[in-house]
Write a structure and sequence with these properties.
- The chain folds into two domains: about 1-45; about 50-110, no CATH class.
- Helix content is about 45%, strand content about 15%.
- The longest helix has about 45 residues, at about 1-45.
- Strand 2 (about 80-85) and strand 3 form a beta hairpin.
- The protein is of the alpha+beta class and about 110 residues long.
- It has helices spanning about 1-45, 50-55, and strands at about 70-75, 80-85, 90-95.
- The chain is rod-shaped, with a radius of gyration of 26 Å.
- The protein has a three-stranded antiparallel sheet, with no helix packed on it.
Amino acid sequence: MELENIQDDANQDLLDGIGALEKIIESEVKVLDQQQQAQEKEMEKKKSETLAEVPEKYRPADSVKCKNCKFSVWYGNEHMLKCYCKQIFNVVYEHDHKDEAIIYCDGPHLEE
């Protein structure tokens, strides 16, 4: 009888521990969701109005680092699109040279 009580208490302790862990996990998931939403809002702020306005055929691929970089200055017209980088002081994207687009860059992580 006493052994059954000990087992019941141990099982209840395990169930309580599992319940506590579930609450912690739920809380952490909420925090991660909030962080992701904040990052998405920050990325939305960084989006270029110029890129939103130019024809799709001129827009860079998502892999182009300059696409959402705070140092990029996008400019163009109905026939071309270019990007000037304020960090390396150079034109870093031209729609007719997409194969030369920058896909690796430390610029977004640097301070202004």
